[in-house]
Fold this sequence. Notes:
Distance between the termini: 13 Å
Number of helices: 6
CATH class: Alpha Beta
Shape: globular
Strand order of the largest sheet: 2-1-3-4-13-12-11-8-9
CATH topology: Rossmann fold
CATH superfamily: Class I glutamine amidotransferase (GATase) domain
Structural class: alpha/beta
Oligomer: single chain
Number of strands: 13
Number of domains: 1
Helix content: 25-40%
Largest sheet: 9 strands, mixed
Amino acid sequence: MLVIIDYGAGNLASVRNAFLKIGVQAAISSDPKVIVQADKAVLPGVGAFADAMENLRRLHLDMTVKAAIESGTPLLGICLGMQLLFTQGEEHGIHPGLDLVKGRVLRFDLPREYKVPHMGWNTIYPQEGSRLLKDIPGGSHFYFVHSYYVEPENDAAIAARSDYGIDFVCAIEQENLFATQFHPEKSGDMGLKILHNFAEL
Length: 201
């Protein structure tokens, strides 16, 4: 069973519908028991880093996510869900994240011709050997909406990069932990391919 984690900050329906398009049943749950027993889990998210972390803690889902990862459950973070996996976020002050990936989340500091948030289609360049991005050609387009980007301490966690005024990390892969800054559920056939790759892990 694949479970989409509901902590009050997710793009839940569109993520579930995208999995349904590829023939994968996905439950939506905030029940720690259901999430820990899942074969795979998805941590979506839109909104502010600190508020999302507070929701996770209030629902005791911060420890649930960590327990799922420690047990070997594959987890996919999407957009804010990716950022929450990091050590800390720097949105309106410094706030602790789940610390599953060492690194931080920074706001874009770009020349004036670049609008923030970074919104719309952009190209990504996967690293060789990525399981999540298997058969995704370099230069494929995906849909982004974000003002912050991740900076992992360990380059080995980087699964893909993109460019928006600066070169930035747009996907990570670390053992059974996977995440994308872009929205695969809003990215057409290429996005569905990524969800299929995750479902087949």
